[in-house]
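Dear support,

I submitted the protein below through the web form. The confirmation email said the job was done, but the results page showed an empty box. After a refresh the structure appeared. I'm attaching both so you can tell me whether what I see now is the final result or a partial one.
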Amino acid sequence: MRIILFKETEGRARSFSLSKNVIFGCVFFAGIGFVANAYFVYRLASEDLLETQTVSVLQQQIAADRATLDSIKVQSTAEMAAVGRRLATMQARLLRMEALGERVTEVANIDQSEFRFSEAPALGGPLSDHENKNLENEFDGADDGADIVASVISAPEYLITVDQLSKQLKAREDQLELLESLLVQRKFQNDIVLAGRPISKGWMSSRFGRRVDPITGAMAWHAGVDFAGREGADVIAVASGVVVFADERSGYGKMIELNHGGGYRTRYGHHQTLFVAAGDVVKRGQVIGSIGSTGRSTGPHVHFEVLKNGKKVDPKRYVARRTQS
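What the results page shows now:
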């Protein structure tokens, strides 16, 4: 390839000859330059687009986080209000529990110095080995105990209040449970005390001691008291106890014997029908049979005996005793 150059000022021309290799090299490097420029422009455009997309994604994420934060704030406010209402309810329950405890203590005639519901009960005791190890591990994980104390002190006020109310409620519940156990024990002691008559309606037809035997007409010893009544009427237990005998026995007819503990037993004779069996546990005032005239009897009545440590005693003092509520 031949190239001719003209220069106007000199009025002459110059010519050059270019080989095919030179022309090919020029074209090749020119193409590389074009491709490089195109790639550079593409990279710049891609990076701008990527940065634009990244900024857009981050803006969307920030907007979503802000919406989540606003939702958490609204939810926290609602939960705090609910906690406040719950605290008010717990405080009201605590006041009612204290008032009830003081009232029960007063009605039950229990020494109020033992149950001061307006004061926190004295508590204490060593930690168990397991708790000691856990506490040591907590202190080993920190530089000193300051972090643990600070975390407790910095707890939200409502959490501290909830914890205090929870402890107070637990203490009052423990006091009421102890008071209930004392009342149950007292009631049990009252229930096993012999008191009252074995019938609800009727009259005493024969006393304890020497009397004229109604069958033979001779003087004889009567080891109980008789209560006459309407046949089929209820016979009731004068105290709580366990049925140790409920069957026919010579002279008694159909008879029931109760063991009340403390060496006391009672017997109820001449039943028409027995409503309990040996091994049953009966309560004071429970109907155990019906008035009859079985055995050695002249008419419907209940033969009532009291035995103390195996010896028959006069039931009069127990019949006249009033039951305690």
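Response: this is the final, complete result; the empty box was a page-load delay. The first strand starts at residue 2 and ends at 7.
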